[in-house]
Design brief:
Layout (H helix, E strand, L loop, with lengths): L5 E6 L5 H9 L5 E7 L3 H10 L4 E3 L2 H7 L4 E4 L3 H13 L3 E4 L7 H12 L5 E3 L7 H12 L5 E11 L20 H4 L2 H11 L2 E9 L10 E8 L4 E7 L1 E13 L2 E7 L8 E5 L6 H5 L10 H14 L7 H20 L3 E2 L8 H4 L17
Parallel strand pairs: 1-2, 1-4, 2-3, 4-5, 5-6, 7-10
Antiparallel strand pairs: 7-11, 8-9, 8-14, 9-10, 11-12, 12-13
Helix pairs in contact: 1-10, 4-5, 5-11, 8-11
């Protein structure tokens, strides 16, 4: 396996771009940030100056025309992810983009088809999969030492005030694609799925409790899995005491992590079942002390590129998580249980996450 220095650019220099710049800077010379893009060229130039980046552009088209690139980090609003990723794939450049990868399953399927015709790849940022604790839990589960997974709880209870939603693209179906189910809790339940495997069926509710948005500000789902496990998933942006919690109850132990926007090994606890006290000794936290941030996933992206492989998380993997998002909305808005694979081509919930329309939709919102 050869190792090289990859030429990278960041498109969109808002708040999350800093995490990507930090991951690039911390790559140990494996990647270099050579250009940035923002529709606000002054903001792009200020970001470039702060990170010692040689070039700033006002459009993705200009970037692709002027630079030879190996990797583009898409940090733009969700509305732009699919068209910009398509533009990159047409140029043969690999993309690492923020969640949600697209606004709909239909858009995601379009990207999957485009990727098959391109020399580039598309990966989605789901960084919590790559923390040391999550990797250790998956290894222990695979070894059989924890016994069968029985029950899980996945809570993303955050707080976003009216000022947060004053940003024009937030809280709308057409530009953000959904509320906390789509844009906030997605990190936690993606980690849930990476541990428990394929989900099977969803029964859900969503509501607009307190925020003046088109989308929900709370959702709750009951989920079953192919392996027989059951889970509760809660997503909220109206919870003053913010927390992110995952709890897994196995036959021989409960494993929990509580954090906010990123966990360390210190955030995990293991409670053995009576008679299985040795399970706690199996956890054995390692020397890694870092937070489950972009750095861990980016290192694996670079490893995959070195091997000539598609970097994680692939579009096919991301689709399983996005299908769950669509199923939560479909179940919430129709009052029916939704099984994996049920939302196929032609379904209104494949075309748009709000599908037939949110039940709280005002008449003035019907044309949006």
């Amino acid at each position: 396996m050869s190792q090289r220095n990859y030429r990278a650019a960041i498109v969109g220099t808002g708040g999350i771009a800093t995490a990507h710049a930090q991951a690039l800077a911390g790559s140990g010379g494996r990647a270099s940030l050579v250009a940035v893009v923002d529709v606000d060229l002054d903001r792009a130039r200020a970001f470039a100056a702060a990170w010692d980046v040689p070039h700033a552009y006002a459009s993705l088209a200009e970037l692709l025309r002027e630079e030879e690139l190996d990797l583009i980090h898409l940090c733009t609003p969700p509305l732009l992810h699919a068209p910009q990723a398509l533009e990159c794939l047409e140029a043969g450049v690999t993309v690492l983009m923020e969640k949600p990868p697209t606004l709909s399953l239909a858009e995601l399927d379009t990207l999957i088809e485009a990727e098959r015709r391109s020399t580039g790849h598309v990966a989605t940022v789901f960084q919590h999969r790559f923390g040391a604790g999550a990797a250790r839990l998956r290894r222990l589960l695979a070894s059989g030492r924890l016994g069968r997974p029985l029950l899980a709880t996945c809570l993303t209870q955050w707080y976003r005030d009216e000022a947060y939603f004053a940003v024009p693209w937030r809280g709308t179906w057409v530009s953000e694609g959904g509320g906390p189910t789509m844009g906030h809790g997605i990190h936690q339940f993606d980690l849930l799925f990476s541990v428990l495997g394929p989900w099977q069926e969803v029964s859900a509710m969503a509501a607009r409790q307190a925020r003046d948005t088109e989308t929900e500000d709370v959702s709750m789902a009951l989920v079953t899995f192919d392996n027989g496990a059951m889970a509760t998933v809660v997503n909220s942006v109206v919870s003053p005491r913010e927390t992110s919690v995952l709890r897994f109850d196995f036959e021989r132990a409960t494993v929990e992590v509580e954090h906010l926007y990123g966990y360390t090994d210190d955030d995990w606890t293991v409670t053995p079942a009576p008679g299985h006290e040795d399970v706690a000794e199996l956890w054995e936290p390692g020397a890694a002390t870092g937070v489950s941030n972009h750095d861990g996933q980016f290192a694996q992206v670079l490893d995959a590129l070195d091997r000539g492989e598609a970097p994680p998380v692939t579009l096919e993997e991301a689709r399983r998580t996005m299908e769950f998002v669509a199923a939560v909305y479909a179940s919430s808005f129709t009052g029916e249980r939704v099984r994996r694979g049920q939302i196929g081509p032609g379904s209104p919930f494949a075309e748009r996450m709000d599908g037939i329309g949110a039940p709280w939709r005002a008449p003035s919102e019907a044309s949006r």
